[in-house]
Amino acid sequence: MSNPTGLQLVWNGKDKIINHHNEIPFRILNEIKSKSFKQDDKNSTENIIIRGDNLDGLKALKPYFYNSVKIIYIDPPYNTGQKQGSRGWVYSDRVDNPIMKKWFNKVVGAENEDYSRHTKWLCMMYPRLKLLYELLRENGIIFVSIDDNEVHNLRLLLDEIFGSGNFIAQLVWKKKAGGGSDTKYFAIDHEYVLVYAKNENFQERYFVGLTQKLKEQYKYKDENYDGLGPYKRKNLYQVGIETDRPNLKYAIECPDGTKVMPPTIWRWSKETFSKAKKEGKIDFVKNREGQWQIFTKMYLYDIDGEEYEIKPRSILVDMGMTKDGNKELKQIFGENNKTFDYPKPTSLIKYLIGIISKKDDIVLDSFAGSGTTGQAVLELNKGDKGNRKFILIQLDEGFEGEKVNICDTVTAERIRRVIKGYSYKDDKGKSGKVAGLGGGFKYYEVNGTLKDEKGFINSLLTKEDIAKFIIFSETKETLAKLDRFNGDFKIGEKNNVVFYFIHDKKILLDNKFLEKIEYEKLKKEGRFVVIYAYGTILDDAYLEENRENLRFMHIPNDLDKIAKI
Length: 565
Fold this sequence. Notes:
There is one protein chain. The strands form six sheets. The protein has a ten-stranded mixed beta sheet, with helices on both faces. Helix content is 28%, strand content 20%. It has 17 helices and 23 strands. By secondary structure, the protein is α/β, with parallel strands linked by helices. About 1% of the residues have low confidence. The longest helix is centred in the N-terminal third of the chain and has 19 residues.
Protein backbone atom coordinates (compact mmCIF):
# COMPACT_ATOMS: atom_id res chain seq x y z
CA MET A 1 0.00 0.00 0.00
CA SER A 2 1.58 3.24 -1.12
CA ASN A 3 0.49 6.77 -1.91
CA PRO A 4 3.39 8.37 -3.81
CA THR A 5 1.55 11.67 -4.25
CA GLY A 6 1.79 12.32 -0.53
CA LEU A 7 -1.75 13.73 -0.54
CA GLN A 8 -4.11 12.85 2.28
CA LEU A 9 -7.69 13.73 3.04
CA VAL A 10 -8.09 15.49 6.39
CA TRP A 11 -11.40 15.90 8.21
CA ASN A 12 -12.66 16.58 11.69
CA GLY A 13 -12.74 13.31 13.64
CA LYS A 14 -10.21 11.40 11.52
CA ASP A 15 -7.86 11.05 14.49
CA LYS A 16 -10.61 9.19 16.37
CA ILE A 17 -11.09 6.50 13.74
CA ILE A 18 -7.65 6.15 12.11
CA ASN A 19 -6.98 2.95 14.10
CA HIS A 20 -10.54 2.05 14.97
CA HIS A 21 -10.49 -1.09 12.81
CA ASN A 22 -7.75 -2.43 15.09
CA GLU A 23 -9.35 -1.27 18.34
CA ILE A 24 -12.74 -2.94 18.00
CA PRO A 25 -12.86 -6.46 19.47
CA PHE A 26 -13.41 -9.60 17.48
CA ARG A 27 -17.02 -10.67 17.16
CA ILE A 28 -18.52 -14.14 17.06
CA LEU A 29 -20.65 -15.31 14.16
CA ASN A 30 -23.58 -17.41 15.34
CA GLU A 31 -25.32 -19.49 12.70
CA ILE A 32 -29.12 -19.27 12.76
CA LYS A 33 -29.83 -22.61 11.17
CA SER A 34 -33.56 -21.95 10.78
CA LYS A 35 -32.72 -19.08 8.41
CA SER A 36 -29.99 -20.88 6.46
CA PHE A 37 -30.95 -22.44 3.15
CA LYS A 38 -29.35 -25.59 1.83
CA GLN A 39 -29.64 -27.71 -1.25
CA ASP A 40 -27.60 -30.64 -2.49
CA ASP A 41 -25.35 -28.48 -4.68
CA LYS A 42 -21.62 -28.58 -4.04
CA ASN A 43 -21.58 -24.96 -2.87
CA SER A 44 -24.73 -25.12 -0.76
CA THR A 45 -23.09 -24.31 2.57
CA GLU A 46 -20.12 -22.19 1.51
CA ASN A 47 -22.03 -18.98 0.84
CA ILE A 48 -22.54 -16.71 3.84
CA ILE A 49 -25.11 -14.06 4.79
CA ILE A 50 -24.44 -12.05 7.94
CA ARG A 51 -26.89 -9.87 9.85
CA GLY A 52 -25.20 -7.03 11.70
CA ASP A 53 -23.13 -3.88 11.49
CA ASN A 54 -20.68 -4.49 8.68
CA LEU A 55 -17.85 -3.15 10.86
CA ASP A 56 -18.40 -5.99 13.33
CA GLY A 57 -19.13 -8.47 10.56
CA LEU A 58 -15.92 -7.67 8.71
CA LYS A 59 -13.86 -7.96 11.90
CA ALA A 60 -15.48 -11.33 12.62
CA LEU A 61 -14.44 -12.55 9.16
CA LYS A 62 -10.73 -11.73 9.55
CA PRO A 63 -9.53 -15.02 11.13
CA TYR A 64 -11.35 -16.96 8.42
CA PHE A 65 -10.91 -14.85 5.27
CA TYR A 66 -7.88 -12.62 5.84
CA ASN A 67 -6.15 -12.03 2.48
CA SER A 68 -8.62 -14.46 0.86
CA VAL A 69 -11.32 -12.47 -0.96
CA LYS A 70 -10.80 -11.99 -4.71
CA ILE A 71 -13.56 -9.47 -5.47
CA ILE A 72 -15.29 -6.89 -3.30
CA TYR A 73 -18.30 -4.97 -4.55
CA ILE A 74 -19.95 -2.41 -2.28
CA ASP A 75 -22.75 0.09 -2.81
CA PRO A 76 -22.46 2.29 0.31
CA PRO A 77 -24.83 5.15 1.21
CA TYR A 78 -24.42 7.97 -1.29
CA ASN A 79 -24.94 10.61 1.41
CA THR A 80 -27.37 12.65 -0.65
CA GLY A 81 -28.70 14.47 2.40
CA GLN A 82 -32.19 12.99 2.20
CA LYS A 83 -33.69 12.42 5.62
CA GLN A 84 -34.29 8.92 6.87
CA GLY A 85 -37.75 7.75 6.08
CA SER A 86 -38.41 10.22 3.27
CA ARG A 87 -38.39 7.26 0.87
CA GLY A 88 -39.63 4.64 3.28
CA TRP A 89 -37.98 2.76 6.10
CA VAL A 90 -35.76 0.37 4.19
CA TYR A 91 -32.84 2.48 3.08
CA SER A 92 -31.25 5.60 4.50
CA ASP A 93 -29.07 7.64 2.19
CA ARG A 94 -27.58 9.61 5.05
CA VAL A 95 -25.45 8.31 7.86
CA ASP A 96 -28.36 8.59 10.28
CA ASN A 97 -29.32 4.97 10.76
CA PRO A 98 -29.96 4.59 14.52
CA ILE A 99 -27.21 2.00 14.89
CA MET A 100 -24.78 4.11 12.89
CA LYS A 101 -25.61 7.22 14.93
CA LYS A 102 -24.98 5.35 18.17
CA TRP A 103 -21.62 4.14 16.85
CA PHE A 104 -20.63 7.62 15.68
CA ASN A 105 -21.48 9.27 19.00
CA LYS A 106 -19.51 6.63 20.91
CA VAL A 107 -16.40 6.49 18.73
CA VAL A 108 -16.11 9.95 17.16
CA GLY A 109 -18.05 12.45 19.21
CA ALA A 110 -21.42 13.75 20.32
CA GLU A 111 -23.88 14.85 17.66
CA ASN A 112 -23.89 18.44 18.87
CA GLU A 113 -20.21 18.77 17.97
CA ASP A 114 -19.28 20.30 14.61
CA TYR A 115 -19.46 17.32 12.25
CA SER A 116 -20.91 17.79 8.78
CA ARG A 117 -22.68 14.98 6.95
CA HIS A 118 -19.55 14.56 4.81
CA THR A 119 -17.42 14.20 7.94
CA LYS A 120 -19.79 11.58 9.33
CA TRP A 121 -19.74 9.70 6.04
CA LEU A 122 -15.92 9.66 5.98
CA CYS A 123 -15.77 8.50 9.60
CA MET A 124 -18.18 5.70 8.77
CA MET A 125 -16.36 4.58 5.62
CA TYR A 126 -12.71 4.72 6.76
CA PRO A 127 -12.54 1.75 9.19
CA ARG A 128 -14.75 -0.35 6.96
CA LEU A 129 -12.51 0.21 3.95
CA LYS A 130 -9.48 -0.65 6.10
CA LEU A 131 -10.99 -4.00 7.02
CA LEU A 132 -12.03 -4.66 3.44
CA TYR A 133 -8.45 -3.99 2.35
CA GLU A 134 -7.19 -6.59 4.83
CA LEU A 135 -9.62 -9.24 3.61
CA LEU A 136 -8.68 -8.73 -0.05
CA ARG A 137 -6.17 -11.03 -1.74
CA GLU A 138 -2.99 -9.60 -3.23
CA ASN A 139 -4.51 -9.99 -6.71
CA GLY A 140 -7.91 -8.81 -5.54
CA ILE A 141 -10.08 -5.95 -6.78
CA ILE A 142 -12.62 -3.67 -5.09
CA PHE A 143 -15.52 -2.04 -6.96
CA VAL A 144 -17.31 0.83 -5.19
CA SER A 145 -20.50 2.38 -6.54
CA ILE A 146 -20.92 6.08 -5.75
CA ASP A 147 -22.35 9.32 -7.16
CA ASP A 148 -21.32 12.97 -7.27
CA ASN A 149 -22.05 13.61 -3.58
CA GLU A 150 -18.96 11.77 -2.31
CA VAL A 151 -16.96 10.58 -5.33
CA HIS A 152 -14.30 13.26 -4.78
CA ASN A 153 -13.84 12.29 -1.14
CA LEU A 154 -13.97 8.58 -1.90
CA ARG A 155 -11.17 8.82 -4.48
CA LEU A 156 -8.86 10.42 -1.91
CA LEU A 157 -9.94 7.94 0.77
CA LEU A 158 -9.22 4.95 -1.47
CA ASP A 159 -5.92 6.51 -2.57
CA GLU A 160 -4.89 6.68 1.08
CA ILE A 161 -5.97 3.15 2.02
CA PHE A 162 -5.22 1.23 -1.19
CA GLY A 163 -2.52 3.50 -2.60
CA SER A 164 -2.94 5.87 -5.53
CA GLY A 165 -0.74 3.56 -7.62
CA ASN A 166 -3.39 0.86 -7.29
CA PHE A 167 -6.13 2.95 -8.87
CA ILE A 168 -7.48 1.06 -11.89
CA ALA A 169 -10.39 3.09 -13.26
CA GLN A 170 -13.34 5.36 -12.57
CA LEU A 171 -16.14 3.76 -14.52
CA VAL A 172 -19.27 5.65 -15.54
CA TRP A 173 -22.51 3.67 -15.37
CA LYS A 174 -25.56 4.88 -17.31
CA LYS A 175 -28.26 4.32 -14.73
CA LYS A 176 -31.28 5.80 -16.48
CA ALA A 177 -32.63 7.42 -19.63
CA GLY A 178 -35.17 10.21 -19.92
CA GLY A 179 -36.69 12.12 -17.04
CA GLY A 180 -34.73 14.85 -15.28
CA SER A 181 -37.60 16.86 -13.81
CA ASP A 182 -36.22 16.21 -10.33
CA THR A 183 -32.99 18.14 -11.00
CA LYS A 184 -32.44 21.89 -11.35
CA TYR A 185 -29.71 21.97 -13.97
CA PHE A 186 -28.69 18.76 -15.73
CA ALA A 187 -30.55 15.47 -15.91
CA ILE A 188 -28.20 13.12 -14.08
CA ASP A 189 -28.07 9.87 -16.03
CA HIS A 190 -24.96 8.34 -14.48
CA GLU A 191 -23.20 7.09 -11.40
CA TYR A 192 -19.61 5.94 -10.90
CA VAL A 193 -17.87 2.70 -10.04
CA LEU A 194 -14.40 3.23 -8.60
CA VAL A 195 -12.02 0.32 -9.17
CA TYR A 196 -8.87 -0.29 -7.10
CA ALA A 197 -6.49 -3.22 -6.88
CA LYS A 198 -4.87 -4.31 -3.66
CA ASN A 199 -1.64 -4.63 -5.63
CA GLU A 200 -1.70 -3.50 -9.25
CA ASN A 201 1.45 -5.54 -9.96
CA PHE A 202 -0.61 -8.72 -9.57
CA GLN A 203 -3.28 -7.68 -12.06
CA GLU A 204 -3.48 -9.32 -15.46
CA ARG A 205 -4.99 -7.70 -18.54
CA TYR A 206 -8.77 -7.53 -18.44
CA PHE A 207 -10.98 -9.08 -21.09
CA VAL A 208 -14.72 -9.68 -21.14
CA GLY A 209 -17.09 -11.70 -23.26
CA LEU A 210 -19.25 -10.10 -25.93
CA THR A 211 -22.68 -8.79 -25.07
CA GLN A 212 -25.64 -10.11 -27.02
CA LYS A 213 -25.78 -6.83 -28.91
CA LEU A 214 -22.15 -7.20 -30.02
CA LYS A 215 -22.65 -10.85 -30.93
CA GLU A 216 -25.36 -9.78 -33.35
CA GLN A 217 -22.66 -8.07 -35.45
CA TYR A 218 -21.21 -11.53 -36.26
CA LYS A 219 -23.71 -12.22 -39.02
CA TYR A 220 -21.62 -13.56 -41.92
CA LYS A 221 -20.74 -17.18 -42.63
CA ASP A 222 -18.06 -18.81 -44.80
CA GLU A 223 -16.21 -22.10 -45.21
CA ASN A 224 -14.60 -21.61 -41.75
CA TYR A 225 -17.97 -21.55 -39.98
CA ASP A 226 -17.78 -25.06 -38.50
CA GLY A 227 -14.51 -24.31 -36.73
CA LEU A 228 -14.58 -20.55 -36.13
CA GLY A 229 -18.28 -19.68 -36.18
CA PRO A 230 -19.78 -16.57 -37.80
CA TYR A 231 -17.70 -13.48 -38.47
CA LYS A 232 -17.99 -9.71 -38.71
CA ARG A 233 -16.12 -7.41 -41.09
CA LYS A 234 -13.47 -4.86 -40.18
CA ASN A 235 -12.11 -2.45 -42.78
CA LEU A 236 -8.48 -3.11 -43.65
CA TYR A 237 -8.04 0.65 -43.89
CA GLN A 238 -8.62 2.50 -40.66
CA VAL A 239 -8.56 6.26 -40.20
CA GLY A 240 -6.34 7.65 -37.47
CA ILE A 241 -3.51 5.10 -37.37
CA GLU A 242 0.14 6.07 -37.85
CA THR A 243 0.90 6.77 -41.55
CA ASP A 244 4.71 6.68 -41.63
CA ARG A 245 4.85 2.91 -42.18
CA PRO A 246 6.17 2.07 -45.71
CA ASN A 247 5.61 -1.67 -45.24
CA LEU A 248 1.88 -1.00 -44.81
CA LYS A 249 1.47 0.86 -48.09
CA TYR A 250 1.06 -1.47 -51.05
CA ALA A 251 -1.41 -2.26 -53.86
CA ILE A 252 -4.05 -4.97 -53.42
CA GLU A 253 -5.57 -6.69 -56.44
CA CYS A 254 -9.33 -7.09 -56.26
CA PRO A 255 -11.42 -9.92 -57.83
CA ASP A 256 -11.93 -8.02 -61.13
CA GLY A 257 -8.23 -7.22 -61.44
CA THR A 258 -8.56 -3.67 -60.15
CA LYS A 259 -5.69 -2.61 -57.91
CA VAL A 260 -6.45 -0.55 -54.82
CA MET A 261 -4.06 1.58 -52.81
CA PRO A 262 -4.88 2.68 -49.25
CA PRO A 263 -5.70 6.37 -48.64
CA THR A 264 -2.76 6.30 -46.20
CA ILE A 265 -1.76 2.79 -45.07
CA TRP A 266 -3.33 -0.63 -44.44
CA ARG A 267 -3.64 -2.12 -40.97
CA TRP A 268 -1.76 -5.28 -42.01
CA SER A 269 1.54 -5.90 -43.76
CA LYS A 270 1.52 -7.46 -47.23
CA GLU A 271 2.71 -10.80 -45.84
CA THR A 272 -0.04 -10.94 -43.21
CA PHE A 273 -2.67 -9.94 -45.78
CA SER A 274 -1.52 -12.57 -48.30
CA LYS A 275 -1.65 -15.31 -45.67
CA ALA A 276 -5.18 -14.31 -44.58
CA LYS A 277 -6.36 -14.18 -48.21
CA LYS A 278 -5.14 -17.71 -48.86
CA GLU A 279 -7.05 -18.87 -45.75
CA GLY A 280 -10.25 -17.23 -47.02
CA LYS A 281 -10.26 -14.62 -44.28
CA ILE A 282 -10.56 -11.53 -46.51
CA ASP A 283 -13.78 -10.06 -47.95
CA PHE A 284 -13.89 -7.83 -51.05
CA VAL A 285 -17.09 -5.75 -51.11
CA LYS A 286 -18.19 -2.95 -53.48
CA ASN A 287 -19.79 0.11 -51.92
CA ARG A 288 -22.69 2.09 -53.37
CA GLU A 289 -20.32 3.99 -55.66
CA GLY A 290 -18.98 0.74 -57.07
CA GLN A 291 -15.63 1.11 -55.33
CA TRP A 292 -13.91 -1.87 -53.78
CA GLN A 293 -13.64 -2.04 -50.00
CA ILE A 294 -11.43 -4.62 -48.38
CA PHE A 295 -12.37 -6.19 -45.04
CA THR A 296 -10.67 -8.60 -42.70
CA LYS A 297 -12.86 -11.27 -41.13
CA MET A 298 -13.15 -11.32 -37.34
CA TYR A 299 -14.50 -14.68 -36.19
CA LEU A 300 -16.54 -15.28 -33.06
CA TYR A 301 -14.30 -18.19 -31.95
CA ASP A 302 -10.58 -18.92 -32.09
CA ILE A 303 -9.02 -22.19 -33.23
CA ASP A 304 -9.41 -23.61 -29.70
CA GLY A 305 -13.13 -22.87 -29.66
CA GLU A 306 -12.81 -19.99 -27.19
CA GLU A 307 -15.17 -17.09 -27.77
CA TYR A 308 -13.64 -13.78 -28.83
CA GLU A 309 -13.17 -11.35 -25.93
CA ILE A 310 -12.74 -7.61 -25.82
CA LYS A 311 -11.39 -4.97 -23.46
CA PRO A 312 -14.00 -3.77 -20.96
CA ARG A 313 -15.00 -0.16 -21.54
CA SER A 314 -14.99 2.62 -18.96
CA ILE A 315 -18.49 3.74 -20.00
CA LEU A 316 -20.99 1.13 -18.84
CA VAL A 317 -23.98 1.16 -21.17
CA ASP A 318 -26.33 -1.73 -21.91
CA MET A 319 -25.45 -3.17 -18.49
CA GLY A 320 -28.91 -2.64 -17.07
CA MET A 321 -30.37 0.45 -15.44
CA THR A 322 -32.00 1.26 -12.12
CA LYS A 323 -35.41 0.48 -13.61
CA ASP A 324 -34.18 -3.04 -14.36
CA GLY A 325 -33.15 -3.51 -10.74
CA ASN A 326 -36.61 -2.35 -9.65
CA LYS A 327 -38.23 -4.72 -12.12
CA GLU A 328 -36.22 -7.65 -10.75
CA LEU A 329 -37.31 -6.95 -7.17
CA LYS A 330 -40.90 -6.50 -8.26
CA GLN A 331 -40.80 -9.91 -9.94
CA ILE A 332 -39.18 -11.59 -6.95
CA PHE A 333 -41.22 -9.99 -4.15
CA GLY A 334 -44.45 -9.04 -5.87
CA GLU A 335 -46.25 -5.80 -6.62
CA ASN A 336 -46.89 -4.69 -3.04
CA ASN A 337 -43.52 -5.58 -1.55
CA LYS A 338 -41.54 -2.32 -1.30
CA THR A 339 -37.91 -3.07 -0.68
CA PHE A 340 -35.27 -0.73 -2.13
CA ASP A 341 -35.93 2.28 -4.34
CA TYR A 342 -32.63 2.26 -6.21
CA PRO A 343 -31.32 -1.30 -6.45
CA LYS A 344 -28.50 -2.11 -8.84
CA PRO A 345 -29.47 -4.48 -11.67
CA THR A 346 -28.03 -7.96 -11.46
CA SER A 347 -26.60 -7.57 -14.97
CA LEU A 348 -24.31 -4.72 -13.83
CA ILE A 349 -22.86 -6.59 -10.85
CA LYS A 350 -22.60 -9.79 -12.85
CA TYR A 351 -20.62 -7.94 -15.52
CA LEU A 352 -18.21 -6.35 -13.02
CA ILE A 353 -17.55 -9.62 -11.19
CA GLY A 354 -17.15 -11.45 -14.48
CA ILE A 355 -14.30 -9.18 -15.59
CA ILE A 356 -11.77 -10.84 -13.29
CA SER A 357 -13.45 -13.71 -11.45
CA LYS A 358 -12.42 -17.33 -11.76
CA LYS A 359 -14.78 -20.19 -11.06
CA ASP A 360 -13.79 -20.65 -7.40
CA ASP A 361 -13.31 -17.03 -6.24
CA ILE A 362 -14.81 -15.45 -3.12
CA VAL A 363 -16.96 -12.35 -3.64
CA LEU A 364 -17.78 -10.03 -0.71
CA ASP A 365 -20.45 -7.32 -0.40
CA SER A 366 -20.58 -5.63 3.01
CA PHE A 367 -23.43 -3.26 2.05
CA ALA A 368 -25.55 -6.08 0.71
CA GLY A 369 -28.90 -4.29 0.54
CA SER A 370 -31.36 -6.29 -1.51
CA GLY A 371 -28.83 -9.05 -2.20
CA THR A 372 -28.08 -8.30 -5.86
CA THR A 373 -24.45 -9.38 -5.50
CA GLY A 374 -25.48 -12.79 -4.20
CA GLN A 375 -27.82 -13.34 -7.14
CA ALA A 376 -25.11 -12.23 -9.57
CA VAL A 377 -22.70 -14.82 -8.15
CA LEU A 378 -25.31 -17.59 -8.38
CA GLU A 379 -26.07 -16.65 -11.99
CA LEU A 380 -22.39 -16.74 -12.91
CA ASN A 381 -22.07 -20.18 -11.30
CA LYS A 382 -25.12 -21.40 -13.18
CA GLY A 383 -23.71 -20.12 -16.46
CA ASP A 384 -20.24 -21.68 -16.28
CA LYS A 385 -20.76 -24.40 -13.64
CA GLY A 386 -18.50 -22.46 -11.30
CA ASN A 387 -18.17 -22.65 -7.53
CA ARG A 388 -17.80 -19.00 -6.59
CA LYS A 389 -18.79 -18.13 -3.04
CA PHE A 390 -20.47 -14.97 -1.82
CA ILE A 391 -20.36 -13.25 1.56
CA LEU A 392 -23.11 -10.68 2.19
CA ILE A 393 -23.39 -8.41 5.24
CA GLN A 394 -26.45 -6.27 5.95
CA LEU A 395 -27.32 -3.97 8.84
CA ASP A 396 -30.81 -3.60 10.29
CA GLU A 397 -32.59 -0.52 8.95
CA GLY A 398 -35.46 1.60 10.27
CA PHE A 399 -36.75 4.85 11.62
CA GLU A 400 -35.28 6.43 14.74
CA GLY A 401 -35.56 3.90 17.57
CA GLU A 402 -36.73 1.12 15.23
CA LYS A 403 -34.82 -1.85 13.89
CA VAL A 404 -36.07 -3.97 11.02
CA ASN A 405 -34.24 -7.15 10.08
CA ILE A 406 -34.07 -6.64 6.34
CA CYS A 407 -31.10 -9.02 6.21
CA ASP A 408 -33.59 -11.85 6.68
CA THR A 409 -36.73 -10.39 5.09
CA VAL A 410 -35.05 -8.85 2.03
CA THR A 411 -31.40 -9.85 1.52
CA ALA A 412 -31.62 -13.53 2.47
CA GLU A 413 -35.22 -13.92 1.29
CA ARG A 414 -34.28 -12.78 -2.20
CA ILE A 415 -31.48 -15.36 -2.32
CA ARG A 416 -33.81 -18.10 -1.06
CA ARG A 417 -36.28 -17.34 -3.83
CA VAL A 418 -33.77 -17.19 -6.69
CA ILE A 419 -32.16 -20.41 -5.46
CA LYS A 420 -35.39 -22.41 -5.55
CA GLY A 421 -37.16 -20.45 -8.31
CA TYR A 422 -40.28 -18.30 -8.12
CA SER A 423 -43.45 -17.31 -9.93
CA TYR A 424 -44.49 -13.77 -10.83
CA LYS A 425 -46.95 -11.64 -12.77
CA ASP A 426 -45.82 -9.04 -15.28
CA ASP A 427 -47.26 -5.54 -15.79
CA LYS A 428 -50.08 -6.96 -17.88
CA GLY A 429 -51.01 -9.55 -15.27
CA LYS A 430 -49.55 -12.44 -17.22
CA SER A 431 -48.04 -15.18 -15.07
CA GLY A 432 -44.45 -16.29 -15.47
CA LYS A 433 -41.99 -18.57 -13.74
CA VAL A 434 -38.24 -18.25 -13.18
CA ALA A 435 -36.23 -21.44 -12.70
CA GLY A 436 -34.09 -21.78 -9.59
CA LEU A 437 -30.37 -21.10 -9.75
CA GLY A 438 -29.45 -23.72 -7.16
CA GLY A 439 -26.93 -23.25 -4.38
CA GLY A 440 -27.46 -22.32 -0.77
CA PHE A 441 -26.06 -20.30 2.13
CA LYS A 442 -25.50 -20.19 5.87
CA TYR A 443 -27.14 -17.35 7.76
CA TYR A 444 -25.24 -15.81 10.68
CA GLU A 445 -25.77 -13.06 13.22
CA VAL A 446 -22.96 -11.08 14.84
CA ASN A 447 -23.15 -12.15 18.48
CA GLY A 448 -20.74 -11.19 21.26
CA THR A 449 -16.96 -11.18 21.63
CA LEU A 450 -14.43 -13.91 22.44
CA LYS A 451 -15.10 -13.55 26.17
CA ASP A 452 -18.48 -13.08 27.79
CA GLU A 453 -19.37 -10.48 30.43
CA LYS A 454 -18.04 -12.72 33.21
CA GLY A 455 -14.67 -13.18 31.51
CA PHE A 456 -15.27 -16.76 30.39
CA ILE A 457 -14.92 -18.12 26.86
CA ASN A 458 -17.98 -17.27 24.80
CA SER A 459 -20.12 -20.40 24.69
CA LEU A 460 -20.70 -19.91 20.96
CA LEU A 461 -17.01 -20.53 20.24
CA THR A 462 -15.96 -24.02 19.20
CA LYS A 463 -12.44 -25.25 19.83
CA GLU A 464 -11.84 -24.95 16.09
CA ASP A 465 -12.90 -21.28 16.25
CA ILE A 466 -10.48 -20.59 19.09
CA ALA A 467 -7.68 -22.33 17.20
CA LYS A 468 -8.34 -20.16 14.15
CA PHE A 469 -8.27 -17.00 16.26
CA ILE A 470 -4.98 -18.13 17.81
CA ILE A 471 -3.28 -18.93 14.52
CA PHE A 472 -4.47 -15.71 12.91
CA SER A 473 -3.34 -13.55 15.84
CA GLU A 474 0.07 -15.20 15.89
CA THR A 475 0.77 -15.51 12.16
CA LYS A 476 -1.73 -13.28 10.29
CA GLU A 477 -2.69 -16.39 8.34
CA THR A 478 -5.98 -18.24 8.21
CA LEU A 479 -6.61 -21.90 8.87
CA ALA A 480 -8.50 -22.81 5.74
CA LYS A 481 -9.79 -26.03 7.26
CA LEU A 482 -9.52 -27.56 10.71
CA ASP A 483 -12.03 -30.36 11.09
CA ARG A 484 -10.28 -32.02 14.00
CA PHE A 485 -7.11 -31.74 16.03
CA ASN A 486 -4.12 -34.01 15.84
CA GLY A 487 -3.44 -36.09 18.91
CA ASP A 488 -0.65 -33.75 19.99
CA PHE A 489 -2.90 -30.65 19.83
CA LYS A 490 -0.68 -29.04 17.22
CA ILE A 491 -2.58 -26.39 15.28
CA GLY A 492 0.05 -24.76 13.11
CA GLU A 493 3.65 -23.86 12.36
CA LYS A 494 5.32 -20.84 10.77
CA ASN A 495 8.86 -19.44 10.61
CA ASN A 496 10.27 -22.08 12.96
CA VAL A 497 7.52 -21.47 15.53
CA VAL A 498 5.20 -24.35 16.47
CA PHE A 499 1.75 -23.62 17.93
CA TYR A 500 -0.27 -25.88 20.22
CA PHE A 501 -3.74 -25.49 21.69
CA ILE A 502 -4.70 -27.81 24.56
CA HIS A 503 -8.45 -27.51 24.09
CA ASP A 504 -9.31 -30.12 26.74
CA LYS A 505 -9.81 -28.30 30.04
CA LYS A 506 -8.86 -31.44 31.94
CA ILE A 507 -5.35 -31.45 30.47
CA LEU A 508 -2.87 -29.01 31.98
CA LEU A 509 0.44 -27.99 30.51
CA ASP A 510 3.03 -30.01 32.41
CA ASN A 511 6.26 -31.94 31.88
CA LYS A 512 4.33 -34.94 30.63
CA PHE A 513 2.78 -32.86 27.83
CA LEU A 514 6.19 -31.41 26.94
CA GLU A 515 7.58 -34.94 26.68
CA LYS A 516 4.67 -35.94 24.46
CA ILE A 517 5.42 -33.18 21.94
CA GLU A 518 9.20 -33.83 22.26
CA TYR A 519 9.87 -30.30 23.45
CA GLU A 520 13.57 -30.95 24.16
CA LYS A 521 14.07 -32.13 20.60
CA LEU A 522 12.30 -29.06 19.25
CA LYS A 523 14.45 -26.92 21.52
CA LYS A 524 17.69 -28.44 20.20
CA GLU A 525 16.47 -27.84 16.65
CA GLY A 526 16.13 -24.17 17.47
CA ARG A 527 12.33 -24.22 17.29
CA PHE A 528 10.17 -21.90 19.38
CA VAL A 529 7.07 -23.44 21.00
CA VAL A 530 3.87 -21.54 21.85
CA ILE A 531 1.27 -23.41 23.91
CA TYR A 532 -2.25 -22.16 24.63
CA ALA A 533 -3.94 -24.00 27.50
CA TYR A 534 -6.49 -23.54 30.27
CA GLY A 535 -3.82 -23.99 32.91
CA THR A 536 -0.29 -25.16 33.72
CA ILE A 537 1.58 -26.68 36.66
CA LEU A 538 4.94 -25.59 35.30
CA ASP A 539 6.37 -23.10 37.76
CA ASP A 540 7.37 -19.56 36.88
CA ALA A 541 11.06 -20.36 37.29
CA TYR A 542 10.89 -23.05 34.60
CA LEU A 543 8.97 -20.81 32.21
CA GLU A 544 11.47 -18.01 32.77
CA GLU A 545 14.41 -20.34 32.22
CA ASN A 546 12.90 -21.53 28.91
CA ARG A 547 11.56 -18.20 27.67
CA GLU A 548 13.89 -18.28 24.66
CA ASN A 549 12.16 -21.45 23.45
CA LEU A 550 8.77 -21.66 25.15
CA ARG A 551 5.78 -19.37 25.72
CA PHE A 552 2.68 -20.32 27.70
CA MET A 553 -0.59 -18.51 26.92
CA HIS A 554 -3.44 -18.86 29.41
CA ILE A 555 -7.02 -19.26 28.27
CA PRO A 556 -9.16 -17.25 28.83
CA ASN A 557 -6.92 -14.59 30.45
CA ASP A 558 -4.55 -14.15 27.52
CA LEU A 559 -7.38 -13.98 25.02
CA ASP A 560 -7.36 -10.25 25.69
CA LYS A 561 -4.05 -10.19 23.83
CA ILE A 562 -5.62 -11.66 20.69
CA ALA A 563 -9.08 -10.11 21.00
CA LYS A 564 -7.97 -7.03 19.06
CA ILE A 565 -5.96 -7.76 15.94
